[in-house]
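Lecture notes, continued. The same structure-token format from the folding unit now serves as the input rather than the output. Read the line below as a description of shape only.
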């Protein structure tokens, strides 16, 4: 042979080997790069919150002791409320004076007590028993050059005189957008004085004002030490020095007490109360430093009555809690203890986010929860920038049961958005994992038997000519776009199955019976050598009459069975008697859709594995007197088991990662229910559904990348498991 030709061939082989190596390395590097990218986006979900000191300056000299602190969302200005009722606004950088606003209704009048609400509304109880509701605003101004400045303002929302039957020691007021005003004052004799003003407008635009006053003078379990109201002034909560938590519904002329629960063990006192963002849960701080949240929960399924129950226990303090401030952005709570320790915790996740450097005597939280301010014992003001982008995420909220607001018990829930911003984001991945496994298992139950039996028949029974036609046809099915399959399944098959569901279920029962009956009829004919020789390789044609007869019988008997057994409406019977809902896009539909997508892969790999078994093995088995079926069961399938197991696992991985079919044909309901009549939501479909609405860098955005990471890991584990099983089976049956 020509040496130059041999040299050329070897050179080409070396070039091809290097190209293949480089290509393989590029593929591996690309996969690793994709994994690194999605993990990099996911990691910030689990990073700890941090407080960065921005500015620190001394508290300016005030004529009275400071009562409250605050800071704007842009960290440009801070303010101090003192005992004169004066808001002193300061530059956040150096503490220089910006402006002062006096809210006192009369000169030289001092504040007797001040309570904060929403971190910007302040109820001031004056020494003359009058009450003022003030609201701090930070208005943004832009000049002609587009430069932004923050202009602080203080609005006096309402001022009312104090006509109480006993001295008031604390007060709280709420003003709603619809003109409803409510104030509650705690009197020295342990009674609560309620004042309400409301304005209504009739169809002709005429306004009618109404004012009511009444006392809550019940016998209470101890002296009231703290109280608060919701935003609308409809619910009043109070805590006593014996640890009792009370709740009233405030009506127009009287209050109805709905709850009296012991919130603190060992008769400790409740020292602080505030409503959590959303006005459903109330945060309770006690004399032992404990911090818990309570909410009304339906106690009896037969009634709509709700009773207070403790839902979350947050990180406590070593000393009594004096102040609790609720974030206006999330379910986070800033708590200050008597000793000066300050914690930021998240209610839903029960995460202890951070602790501010102290000890502090007063603290304030910006409405966007991006900054905080504190006054220490050296009368120094410190401004912090809070880096806390994902407080609602924890391993428990992602993979454990969580007791969410308005739920009667802890549950696994995925609900990324709602009608308003007050709700708790629910990012449990358990329903998505469940939906992924559920849809895949139902699809595999449909696909695996058909694919494997079809491959066995094609390789062991079909004629070579028929095999050359069928195998490429089935393999071409794998190239059908999944969106086309999903479209047909969702818009054609789902409505068809819904209208004939009883017939479909009946066909599943009748098919084995008709098959056995058909085989019993055919068996005597098949003993004839001419019939057996003529049908060789085309035995499947004997099943066509069975299938047609099954379909016809099921279609004919379906309405009759539905009328006799299910009172003419199977779906209504299913709901009334079994408590199951029938969704049009359910697990039956997804089994057909995913099964069609998976069958070609399993079929092709299985057929190749069976066809690669040496013919000498089957010939030896047949020569020893084994039947064709015995040969298949005892020789062919064990020998091909490595390839068959790999085919099943690859098909399983294909079904797990499928997106378009499950997106279009499942209904995308993230529920935990094995019923075949319900849908599901898978990890891949969830990413496709949610990603268009996910703000870049937000919690939902990163949780979706976490879904992608878990999906990547799941497919990796499946493929690795398939390879391990294949290798073990190859070693076990390698002697064949």
């Amino acid at each position: 042979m020509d040496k130059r030709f041999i040299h050329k061939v070897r050179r080409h082989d070396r070039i091809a080997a290097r190209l293949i190596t480089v290509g393989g390395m590029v593929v591996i590097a690309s996969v690793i790069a994709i994994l690194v990218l999605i993990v990099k986006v996911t990691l910030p979900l689990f990073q700890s919150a941090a407080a960065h000191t921005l500015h620190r300056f001394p508290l300016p000299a005030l004529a009275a002791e400071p009562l409250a602190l605050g800071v704007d969302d842009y960290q440009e200005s801070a303010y101090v409320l003192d005992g004169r009722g004066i808001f002193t606004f300061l530059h956040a950088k150096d503490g220089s004076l910006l402006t002062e606003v006096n809210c006192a209704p009369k000169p030289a009048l001092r504040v007797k007590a001040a309570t904060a609400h929403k971190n910007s509304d302040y109820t001031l109880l004056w020494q003359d028993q009058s009450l003022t509701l003030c609201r701090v605003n930070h208005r943004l101004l832009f000049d002609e050059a587009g430069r932004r400045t923050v202009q602080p303002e203080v609005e006096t929302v309402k001022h009312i005189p104090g006509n109480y039957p006993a001295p008031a020691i604390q007060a709280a007021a709420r003003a709603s957008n619809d003109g409803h005003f409510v104030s509650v004052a705690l009197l020295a004799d342990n009674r609560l004085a309620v004042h309400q003003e409301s304005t209504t407008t009739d169809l002709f635009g005429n306004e009618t004002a109404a004012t009511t006053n009444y006392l809550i003078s019940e016998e209470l379990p101890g002296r009231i030490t703290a109280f608060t109201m919701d935003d609308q002034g409809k619910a009043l909560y109070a805590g006593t020095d014996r640890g009792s938590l009370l709740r009233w519904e405030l009506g127009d002329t009287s209050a109805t007490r709905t709850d009296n629960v012991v919130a603190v063990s060992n008769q400790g006192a409740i020292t602080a109360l505030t409503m959590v963002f959303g006005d459903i849960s109330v945060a309770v701080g006690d004399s032992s430093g404990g911090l818990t949240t309570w909410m009304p929960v339906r106690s009896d399924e037969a009634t709509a009555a709700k009773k207070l129950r403790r839902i979350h226990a947050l990180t406590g303090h070593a000393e009594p809690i004096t102040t609790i401030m609720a974030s206006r952005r999330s379910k986070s709570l800033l708590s200050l203890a008597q000793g000066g320790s300050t914690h930021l915790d998240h209610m839903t996740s029960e995460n202890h986010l951070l602790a501010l450097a102290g000890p502090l005597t007063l603290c304030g939280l910006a409405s966007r929860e991006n900054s905080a301010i504190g006054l220490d014992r050296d009368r120094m003001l410190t401004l912090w920038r809070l880096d806390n982008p994902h407080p609602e995420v924890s391993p428990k909220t992602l993979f454990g049961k969580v007791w969410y607001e308005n739920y009667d018990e802890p549950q696994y829930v995925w609900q990324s958005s709602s009608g308003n911003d007050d709700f708790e984001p629910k990012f449990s991945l358990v329903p998505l994992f469940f939906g992924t496994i559920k849809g895949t298992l139902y699809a595999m139950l449909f696909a695996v038997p058909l694919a494997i039996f079809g491959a066995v028949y094609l390789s062991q029974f079909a004629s070579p000519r028929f095999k050359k036609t069928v195998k490429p046809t089935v393999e071409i099915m794998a190239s059908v776009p999944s969106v086309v399959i999903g479209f047909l399944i969702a818009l054609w098959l789902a409505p068809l199955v819904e209208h004939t569901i009883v017939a479909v279920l009946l066909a599943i029962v009748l098919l084995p019976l008709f098959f056995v009956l058909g085989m019993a009829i055919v068996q005597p004919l098949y003993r004839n050598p001419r019939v057996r020789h003529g049908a060789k390789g085309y035995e499947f044609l004997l099943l066509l009459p069975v299938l047609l007869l099954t379909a016809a019988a099921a279609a004919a008997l379906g309405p009759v069975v539905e009328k006799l057994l299910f009172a003419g409406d199977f779906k209504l019977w299913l709901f009334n008697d079994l408590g199951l809902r029938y969704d049009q896009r359910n697990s039956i539909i997804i089994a057909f859709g995913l099964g069609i997508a998976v069958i070609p892969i399993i079929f092709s790999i299985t057929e190749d594995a069976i066809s690669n078994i040496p013919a000498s093995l089957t010939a030896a088995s047949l020569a020893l007197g084994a039947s064709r079926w015995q040969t298949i069961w005892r020789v062919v399938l064990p020998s091909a088991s490595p390839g068959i197991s790999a085919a099943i696992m690859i098909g399983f991985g294909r079904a797990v990662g499928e997106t378009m079919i499950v997106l279009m044909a499942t209904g995308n309901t993230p529920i935990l229910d094995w019923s075949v009549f319900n849908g599901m939501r898978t990890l891949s479909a969830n990413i496709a559904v949610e990603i268009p609405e996910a703000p870049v860098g937000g919690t939902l955005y990163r949780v979706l990348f976490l879904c992608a990471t878990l999906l990547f890991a799941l497919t990796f584990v499946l493929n690795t498991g398939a390879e391990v099983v294949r290798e073990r089976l190859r070693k076990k049956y390698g002697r064949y």
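Point for the exam: Residues 433 and 683 are 7 Å apart (CA to CA).
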